[in-house]
# Entry
Amino acid sequence: MSILIENVSKNFGNVTRLSKINLEIPTGNLVALLGPSGSGKSTLLRTIAGFEKPDYGRIWFTNKNSTVLSIQQRQIGFVFQEYALFPKMTISENIAFGLKIQQKSMEEIRKQVTELLKLTQLENFSKFYPYQLSGGQKQRVAFARALAIEPKILLLDEPFGALDIKVRKNLRIWLRHLHEKLPVTSIFVTHDIHEAMEISDEVVIFRDGCIEQFGSPQEIYEHPSSSFVKNFIGI
# Structure
């Protein structure tokens, strides 16, 4: 599913978080939102998800105006930095949660959970509880749960931010491989320049609620649009 963002603005009181954002993301791309704290990255992600409503502008999912759709109608999977797993449910039960809400049959749920456990390399942990897993394993459970509802769009809000450097590196390589297997458009927020440049198809650099530059990692490294971008990416 493609995403078209048209003149989206969002204020919180007197603070402007997004100012006339225009952005087009093709179907199937993995896009990083990169920038300093408070620059608008997470606000845009939450607005795409429907957690926030834009004060102005529209967001289109292919040919649908998403700003009139409920969160449930948007076909979006969301992964948070904090995992947000249910502590008293097993890993399989966590993954199955959204499927039960959709009232899928027990056979459908069992089959889909089995496939997702395999996809996320968690086959041997189906009966474990979250407290028994490492941080990296918990984050893979969070991915599996988000993917269980078969979203068209996957939104990731600093998904590796709470993990140590080695685990982060392994998981971002895993995410790139996972994304190549799935028919999903993904957007992830990060502060990590190397993370954004290593695994994304395109990078959006934010500054004070505006897009400073949008392009492939190579384009941004070779042709930074401003001194801010140069300094931010360390050229």
Q: What stands out?
A: The beta strands are 3-12, 15-25, 30-34, 56-61, 64-65, 76-79, 153-157, 185-190, 202-207, 210-215. Residues 34 and 205 are 5 Å apart (CA to CA). Helices lie at 41-49, 91-101, 106-119, 135-148, 165-181, 193-199, 217-222, 227-233. Residues 1-75+153-235 form a domain with the Rossmann fold fold (CATH 3.40.50.300).
